[in-house]
From TrEMBL:
Keyword Kinase annotated: yes
PROSITE patterns hit by this protein: PROTEIN_KINASE_DOM
Pfam family, one: PK_Tyr_Ser-Thr
Keywords: Kinase, Transferase
Domain Protein kinase residues, every copy: 1-184
InterPro entries membership: Kinase-like_dom_sf (IPR011009), Prot_kinase_dom (IPR000719), Ser-Thr/Tyr_kinase_cat_dom (IPR001245), Ser/Thr_Kinases-Pseudokinases (IPR051681)
Highest taxon in the source lineage: Eukaryota
GO molecular function, one term: ATP binding
Protein name (database record): Kinase-like domain-containing protein
Length: 290
């Protein structure tokens, strides 16, 4: 019944219709909204278990009003039947493909793939069959390819943390939300007071936006023509495709392997933005009193 209110369709549909005007500011706002939805699930000690772009719905076609759907597989952390693996292979964390318990870290892996889709307009592993051999490559640490300047370096670093083979490297959704907000505030034209404090982030996003505008036509053609006939982006039972996968080891990066843009102090930036927001609220209150 929830679909009755999603006239904008899925994230896939929305992106197909709005890709040309979806600049980096819009991309970050979309991710911030998705973060908010997933954080609400995790705060209830629940996990989604089938988190992908097809289960992110838009209430209206021309507005950024989204919600996360298909909660039928949603369950409590560590209280989930792991016998059946259901979903879209590129969005399923390697530990889940091997039959390990589904945790909130697996949702974060899926979020990393959503970040790839947002950045490129392409589904992860769209050029490959979603079969046993793809699962084996995922175990080996193979991930969708993306490079600067197609996306900002700080964005790519966060995305790679999310899809790390090592669950300990994946950030919590609250940390992701804070970083996405830092990115958005850094790039937004409404935060002129802090430009000098975060110019490196701003510079990275401006370069990515310039690249997007210059290469839009070629990117659009790639998105339309690169899908493999056996790349399946509807949820299905994965178990028959990964028989005996538990026998194979997957590559794990050591803990703390990733460092998001070492020369950027995100804690300092987050505090600065919080101070600015508090000042704005105080100014509004003073104005109302006057």
């Amino acid at each position: 019944m929830i679909l009755d209110y999603a006239s904008g369709g899925s994230f896939n549909d929305w992106m197909n219709n709005n890709y040309k005007k979806c600049d980096w500011n819009e991309k970050l706002l979309l991710l911030a909204d998705i973060c908010e939805g997933l954080e609400g699930i995790h705060q209830k000690q629940m996990v989604h278990r089938d988190f992908h772009t097809g289960n992110i719905l838009f209430k209206f076609q021309d507005e950024r009003d989204i919600f996360i759907s298909d909660m039928g597989l949603c369950g409590e952390v560590d209280n989930i039947d792991k016998a059946k693996i259901y979903g879209i292979m590129p969005y399923i964390a390697p530990e889940v493909l091997k039959g390990n318990p589904y945790t909130d870290a697996a949702d974060i892996y899926s979020f990393g793939m959503i970040m790839y889709f947002v950045a490129t307009g392409k589904q992860p592993f769209a050029n490959r069959a979603h079969d046993y051999y793809l699962a084996m490559d995922i175990f080996k640490g193979i991930r969708p390819e993306i490079n600067v300047p197609e996306a900002p370096e700080c964005y790519i670093d966060l995305m790679k943390r999310c899809w790390s083979s090592n669950q300990d490297n994946r950030p919590k959704i609250a940390e992701i939300r804070e970083l996405i907000n830092v990115f958005e505030n850094s790039y937004s034209q409404g935060y002129e007071m802090l430009k000098q404090k975060h110019y490196k982030i701003e510079k990275q996003f401006k370069a990515a936006e310039e690249y997007r505008r210059m290469h839009f036509s070629s990117i659009e053609n790639i998105v339309e023509s690169s899908s493999h006939p056996q790349a399946i982006y509807t949820s299905r039972l994965i178990n028959p495709l990964i028989k005996d996968s538990s026998k194979y080891e997957y590559v794990e990066e050591p803990s703390n392997y990733f460092n998001i843009s070492k020369d950027i102090d995100f804690d300092k930036l987050a505090n600065a933005f919080e101070e600015l927001n508090n000042q704005n609220y105080q100014d509004e209150d003073n104005h109302l009193e006057d």
